[in-house]
Every structure is written in C-alpha cells, then in structure tokens.
Amino acid sequence: MSQFRVLVGVLRGGRAGRSQLQRGCGGALARLRVDPSRSCSSRTEPLLPAVVSSSNYVEEMYFAWLEDHKNVHESWDGFFRNIQASSPSGEADETPPSALLQGRVLSHSPDLAQKVVEDHLAVHSLIRAYQIRGHHVAQLDPLGILDADLDSFVPSDLITTIDKLGFYGLDESDLDRSFQLPPTSFIGGQHTTLPLKEIIRRLETSYCGHIGVEFMFINNVDQCQWIRQRFETPGIMQFTNAEKRTLLARLIRSTRFEDFLARKWSSEKRFGLEGCEVLIPALKTIIDTSSAAGIDSVIMGMPHRGRLNVLANVIRKDLDQIFCQFDPKLEAADEGSGDVKYHLGMCHERINRGTDKSITLSLMANPSHLEAVDPVVQGKTKAEQFYRGDTQGKKVMSILMHGDAAFAGQGIVYETFHLSELPSYTTYGTIHVVVNNQIGFTTDPRVARSSPYPTDVARVVNAPIFHANADDPEAVMYVCRVAAEWRTTFNKDVVIDLVCYRRFGHNEMDEPMFTQPLMYKQIRRQEHVLKKYSDKLIADGVVTLQEFEEEVAKYDKICEEAYTSSKDEKIMHIRHWLDSPWPDFFTADGEPKSMSSPPTGLEEEVLQHIGQTASSVPLEDFKIHPGVSRILRGRADLVKNRLMDWALGEYMAFGSLLKEGIHVRLSGQDVERGTFSHRHHILHDQEVDKRTCVPMNHLWANQAPYTVCNSSLSEYGVLGFELGFAMANPNALILWEAQFGDFHNTAQCIIDQFISSGQAKWVRNNGIVLLLPHGMEGMGPEHSSARPERFLQMSKDDPDHFPELSGDFEVKQLHDCNWIVVNCSTPANFCHVLRRQILLPFRKPLIIFTPKSLLRHPDARSSFDDLAEGTRFKRLIPDNGPASQSPGHVKRVIFCTGKVFYELVKERKQQGLERNVAIVRLEQISPFPFDLVKEEVEKYTDAELVWCQEEHKNMGYYDYVRPRFLTVVANRRPIWYVGRDPAAAPATGNKSTHFTELKRFMDAAFNLNNFQNKNI
Predict the structure, then answer these.
(1) Which of 44-58, 575-589, 675-689, 932-946 has the lowest mean pLDDT?
(2) Long-range Cβ pairs for the range 517-520 (8 Å, 24+)
(3) Which protein family is named in the record (predicted)?
C-alpha cells in the first residue's frame, strides 16, 4: 500500500485508519518503544488532529524525526518536512520542537495537515491526468500543422503553463516542494519523492513528446502498471549505437527503394511509402523482438500503400521479381487474370539476422477493399496455430497494417477486433500498425470520422494504443519494441499509430494540391526523415558521413543489378507470388498430382458406427434435454432402418472424413445446435454448467479433431476468418454456415474479392464450403433466398460453348471452374459432395444451398445403399419412375433443383401424370453438367423441355441455365420457364400470397397445353 495512503487512512480515522497507521509506522513505533495502541482511536472523526491534541504519540514521532530523519518511516519524514516548510520564516528554528505541534502552531495544525494531504492528492491527480490525457498534447504530427486528435484544445488538468497550477490549488511557490509519488507511477525511478517541477518535467517527457500513449481505459491494473513502467521509467528509452546503425541501414533501404522506383518508373502508380519510410524498420523491429521471444511464423496483411517496399525489405522478396512487374511487355506464365503488383502477396522463409533464427513471413494478397484482408489473416494465423499445437500463440502471430481512414471507417475492423478474444477465433494478440496519413484519398479526417483518433475502435477490446511521430525513428522503434513485448506478455491486441504524411498524394499520379493546399505546401518544405536522422547520428558520432554514403551506394547497387536481371522473362511467373503455398499437395509445377476423383461411398460398418454415435451420448452421467433425447431416439430408429435424414447425412460426411485424418471445422451463427435445431453437434449437460459433449470427437481412437463453434454475429468477419483458415491446409474441410442463406450478403466482399476470383488473381486454391439455407417457405423476403443468381453470375463456364466430352470430363470441368455451386435434394448426395470436396486432387470453393423444410421432410431421406461403397456424388438425378421407363410417352420433361422437386412430385402424383411428365434434378448447377443434361434431352426426344424454379424469374437459376440448355439442344428446341413472375423482393411476406403463387406455377408446370405454339 502506498505510504501516502497510510497517511490518508490515518486522517480518515476509524478501524481502517488505525490498522493503516500501525502498518505504515510499525518501524517507528518499534524504534521508539511506543505502545501501538496509543495510536488507536475509537472515534470516526479525523484521527490526526485528535492524536495531536490529546496524545504525545505524534510529538514523540516528531522528536525522533528531529534527532534523525531515518528514525521514522519515509511517509512521516515527508509529512514533517512539509509542516516545517509551511511554518513562518525562522519559526522552526526559534520555537521549541514541541511548540510546532502545540500552542499557537498547534491551533493551526488541523488545517495545515489537511492542506498537506490535499496538495499530495492534487499532485497524484496531476500525475493521473498526464497518464490519461497526456497524449492529447503530444507532438505527434511531423508536419506540425494538425493535431492528431483533431482538437487543438489543451485539457485543463495538464500543466502546460504556470497559471494551470491553480486547477489543483497549487501555485508557482509549490514547484520546488517535494511530493510523495504514488505507486501507480514510475517517474521517480529510485526516488519516492520529487519536486513538483521535476514531476511535471518527467511527465511531459513520458507522455507529451513524440509518443502518445492511450492505456488508462484498460481495466486491468497489472497491464496498466506494465505500460507505465515502460514509458515512465527515467532513461528507459535508450538505444545502443549498434541499434541506431541498424535502424539507419533499414531506413536507407526503405527510402532508397522508393527513390529507385521513382527514377525508373516515374509514370507508374506504385503507392509508395514516402512520408512513412519508418514503416520498414518498424516492422522489422516488431519481427526481431517477436523472433527473440520464440515466434517463427508471422502472417501479415496490409493495403496497397508501401506493399512493394514491405515485400522487398521485410519479406525480402527478390527485387528482380518485383521490378519485372513494371515491365508491360512481359506476360504472366500462368493462366488467370492476375492482379496489379501492389495487391499481390508472398510467403518466404528466411533467417532473421537480428536473432539468427529461421522465420517464415507471409504477406497475404489483398484487393483494393482495404481492410477486407483483416479477418483472412486472422483465420490463417489461427489455422497455423491449430495445426502446430500452438495453443498460446507462442510460435505464430499476425501483424495487420492499416490506413487511418480505412481503420476508422470500415466496419470489418470492428468485426475483426471482436473476434480477438473469442475462444475459437483468438490468435492470442495481433499487432496493428496504422499508417496514419492524416488524410483519406482527398478527404480531410475532420469530415471522415467522429472519433478523436482513427484508432479509437481498438478501445472496445482494451487494446493499448501507442501514437508515434513517424519522423522520430527512435520513438517509433521504441513503441514497436514495447508493442511486441506486450503481445508476448499478455497475448492481446495492441495498436501502433504512425502519424505521418503522404509526400505525393494518394498515388504518384495524383495532384493533392487540389484539395489539401496548405498541407502540401508544408510537405514540400518537409525535410526527409532519412536526412534528419542521418544528420543526427553523424553529429552524435554514431556513424561517419562516409559510412552513411557507402551504405546508400551499396543498396543502390543492389537495386541496379536486380533491375538488369528483371528483364529475363523466365522470372515473370505468378506462382512466385503465392502467399499460401501447399508444396505437399501439388506437383513442383503447382499442378494437381492426378486428375481423377475416386468414389465417395462408405462401408456399411462405418455408416452404422457413425449412426450409432450420432444417436447416443458418449459420456456417462450426462443429463441431456428431453427434446434432444427424442431427437437422438429418432436418429437411432433411422439407423436401425438403414436410413438417414439431413442431419445424419452431414454426420456421415464429417465422421468419415475424421476417420481418414481430415480435420473438420464448422463455424457460423448457432451452428452447434443448428439454426433449425436439427444438428446438435454439441450436447449440453442440463445440470452442470458449461459441461458439454461433442459426440463427433468420440468416433474413432485416432481420428482427426472436429471443431464446431458458434461465431459472433458477424458474416463479413467470420467468413473472412474461415477463408483464411482454409488457406493453411488443403487436407481439412472448413465450412461456414449462414444462419439464413441471404445473410451472406453482408459478407459479399469476401465472396466477390476472395472466394470467386481468388484463384484467378492470386493462384490461390481454397476449398472453403459455404452452407446457405435456402428455400421459399413463406417466411418473408429476408429468410427465403440465398441469392443463387449472384453466385451463378460469377461462375466462369461459357454458356455458349458445348465442351468436349473426353476423358474424365467431370473432374476436368471442376478443375477449370472457379467454384462449384450445388443444391442437393437428398442427404446422401449432400454427404457425397462434402466427401468429394476433400477427395478431389485440387481445391475449389463449394457453395451449397441447403434446405430448411427438407431437414425433416419424410421424403427427403436416403438409404444407406445410396452411400454404399463405389457410389459417388450425382451431378444430375434423372427421373426413375414410370416416365423414364416409357420415354416415348413423356410429353414434358421438367428440370429443377432443390426443394421444389418434392412439390413437383406431389403435384404430379395428384394429377396422375407419372407416365407423361418426367422430373429431372440438377444437383450440381455450376459447372453445368452438359454431358448429363444432353443424355436426358436426347432420351425424351419428343417432350417439351421446362425449367421450373420456385424463385422469381429474374432471380434463382433461370438466367444461368437457359443459355446452357439452348447450347445443349443447339437451339433446336425451346426451354420453357415455370416459376414466379419477376419481382423486386426475393419473396413475399404474406403466407396466403406465397401459397397462391405456389399453386399458380404448379398448375402451369403440369398443364400440358399451355406452352404449345408459344415462343419463349
């Protein structure tokens, strides 16, 4: 307990005061042989005046102090010094010692004691004010024209001028008085008291220089103390000459790299780092410090500004491979669209020269959607930690770089922060580095954000925020070192805000003077940070001018040699830019090791074993809910009859893959139970809190782990996270399930920028699976459609070209597509397609429109025979009734997909048209099964061809399938549409209207005369 709090406790009196007095003054009492009980008082009024007036105890303490200040505790030493200092001039020497506490002076002692205490408390408040608000007056803007917190107001409780002392009831005469320092401050070093003017000086040094620290909102005393110690301890911010020379060398590389690009490609956009060259040594300091703590893999994400420099000088990508990207005459050696050079990523293992340890650095490819990469990086980091058994993040970590406008403005930043401490999503601390340009593209921050700083969003997870003036390299290096140590110590997020500027505007072709004339007049006068820092080191004798110039010339030579070799066309290979290579999965050329897909069926005993586990509770004395008991009994009955519903089909897929050593991870909102209460993959004990059971993890002795985790209420962040997780390992089935299929629209950026086009842009294979509940059930426009038209529109197969049906057409078609879109109508086919996802020799994203009502539909069940050995996924399920046996009698073939099949079958039976109407299901919609559709069309040569869907005509599948059907029939037969009319909303919210629409298009589907003599 602080010595000053001892004194305050005494003044408060009562039992607490007595105990504090005894603890605080125990040494003095023992020395003076004073009975401790003499210091006690049963009264509750302030104790010290009473003691002074009615007891000799304080006087005895005072006499002992006069004899030797060391005779009393240091808290009393300070107290008596202040009393003596407050006495009129000469009185302390002329008056007998006892008179200082008795007589005329004694009559003033209560007020005097109160003043002493108030002054000490005021100084403590002053110290706390600097700790809380000192960053508001820190010198953060290298340009000196803008306050980093967008406010020039100086908090009234910070002592920036002498007259401000009055806020605390102090004045200029108090500046030389010594005050007891609280234990929540380290500014004293080895001293427990300091003069007020020295206290203020040290606080300004710690909190108001080129570093601003935000941390007092953290609700953990130990963490706050840890930060105080690293910024308040006198002289702690020191660098050796060797460290300064290393910093200078890194700053040279960062600066000269940008200068080289500007000289060679003056008319090219490169989104250079000018104005924040310190980012390169900052990142290398973080990596050095983390490597020394045991980290050997760092996954990074960043926007385009400075990416080429990071690739060159942090990841250490070969410079010739970077430079060749500027040559417009060279073409990529791989198929695919590719991407602009400042979007590409890289993975590289090298020796960290600061620690002589091997480290793998991965920079993830990222589109212009700046912060979209944030959750992707977190997901990949989590995956690497998971597969390496790194349960505390001691080996693998992530670094995220941001722009100030995007960090404040894009909601995905907030979503990603909220994953940071969730058990199934934490990466045990991310270091965020904000390149604070103090401007957006052309938008002033004062109209771009409502928060004082762009980094304020990080406060929601109690992440400390270190602001630093980017023109002070040593200040930046220090906060980077502290940030890395924080992450190592506490496994929590931390933010570094590099307050800088853009020397050339948004990009090198931009004219910033249009909208920021004053800022850019100052920037043109601004001396480069390399010049300022090199001059400082030369003046200090750390390096000589010759050594500096030699280091510059050395790096310039490296760039020139790389430029010469960059003209070799052989190096222009997009596979050099892989950020997530799978060397054991592909051949050396990056191609699949085979082009075949084995059957996906299972042995009977495997099906039985999985079914029995799925319908039981593996743990003893585990009390489950009666409703869950009924579900498990229902499963047991199905297994006994060799049948499976949708939940069992999923169980069969997951369980069999676990047996084969394939990790399965299912994530999303409420996936543990399932939105529709059908899954129950985690059972909860009804009598013991937090006791759970995952039956899937009790299937086999040496199985792979099954991870099923409810996510935060986020689609954008969580889907990005699972996408990143799927990048780490091809031998894992990673699934994300939307609560309802249409909720994927808030994750559309991840789907559009990463999943649909990731392989084309970045040669990035990914096997992520999206489960999207879909179906018109009369539940309204927001709980009906997973928007299949959007996925199909982005499928790249050519609607007007009938492919060559040679070899293993199915596998080749899958290999050439950008993703797979299916709508399974049976549990067995659902199981097959999930197993096929892993058994394919390559990885493609899989989009599955999953059912709602079919989860419990009595007809939507499969026999174990449908999953028997040798069976496989059916891309198309033909009619297997009377119509298929007599194709010559068939007048109409209805092609459909998904749930509407069961409604069509029911209507056909009611109208007695089993022999006249064939119903064919497309289970795989994209890539389109041209070969199987052709077989069905040729089988029913005299029948009308109809596409039936429950979605509106301008939605669903029709616009995708129609041109492909016409290609199959060579435009010689029409394909008619049956379904709902075009609409703006995907579904009606009126139940009656829903059934009216359903009846209308069912009638149209089976009216065999309604299409005759009509053109489509």
Answers:
(1) 44-58
(2) 518/145, 519/143, 519/145, 519/146, 519/438, 519/439
(3) Belongs to the alpha-ketoglutarate dehydrogenase family.
Q: Please give the structure tokens belonging to residue 807.
A: 């070899």
3-state secondary structure of 383: helix
Q: Which residues pair with 732 in a beta bridge?
A: 663
φ/ψ (deg, to 5) at 822: -130, 155
Write out pLDDT tens, residues 823-833. 999 999 999 99
Asked whether the beta carbons of 670 and 711 are under 8 A apart, the reply is no
Which one-letter amino acid corresponds to residue 801? H
pLDDT per position as a tens digit, 621-648: 999 999 999 999 999 999 999 999 999 9
Q: How do residues 788-816 score in pLDDT, each as one tens digit?
A: 999 999 999 999 999 998 878 999 999 99
C-alpha span between 445 and 385 (Å, rounded): 37
DSSP letter (8 states) at residue 215: -
- List C-alpha distances in Å: 721 to 29, 304, 373, 457, 717: 63, 21, 9, 19, 6
Q: Quote the radius of gyration of the chain (alpha carbons, Å).
A: 37
Tell whether 480 and 624 lie within a shared domain: no
- pLDDT 10s digits, 293-346: 999 999 999 998 889 999 999 999 888 888 888 776 656 555 566 777 667 888
Count of structural domains, the chain: 4
Q: Which of left, alpha, beta for 190 (phi over 0: left; psi -120 to 50: alpha)?
A: alpha
CATH classification of the domain holding 382: 3.40.50.970
Q: Which among 581, 590, 579, 583 is positioned nearest to 345, based on CA atoms?
A: 579
Average pLDDT, the chain: 87
Asked if residue 161 and residue 70 are part of one domain, the reply reads yes
Output phi, psi for 848, to 5 deg: -120, 120
Read off the pLDDT of residues 410-444 as tens digits, 9 standing for 90 and up.
999 999 999 999 999 999 999 999 999 998 888 88
Widest Cα–Cα separation across the chain: 130
Distances (CA, A) of 205 to 130, 131, 481: 10, 12, 18
What three-state secondary structure class fits 122?
helix
Closest to 188 (Cα-Cα) out of 235, 122, 150:
235
3 state SS of 772: strand
Per-residue confidence (pLDDT) for residue 597, from 0 to 100: 86
C-alpha span between 683 and 627 (Å, rounded): 12
* pLDDT higher than threshold 90 for residue 820: yes
Structure tokens at 1002: 């069912």
Does the pLDDT of residue 214 top 80, yes or no? yes
DSSP 131-193: HHHGGGGS---TTSSS-TTS--PPPTTS-SSGGGGGGGT--GGGTTSEEEPPTT--TTTT-SE
Helix, strand, coil distribution of the chain in percent, nearest 5 = 45, 10, 40
Per-residue b or e along 135-147, where b marks 16 or more CB atoms closer than 10 Å to that residue's CB: bbbbbbbbbeebb
What is the rounded end-to-end Cα distance, in angstroms, of the chain? 87
- Indicate whether 818 belongs to any domain: no
Q: Is the pLDDT of residue 600 over 90?
A: yes
**10 Å Cβ neighbour count for 630?**
10
Write down which residue in 867, 893, 928 finishes a domain: 867
Query: What's 929's domain CATH number?
Result: 3.40.50.11610
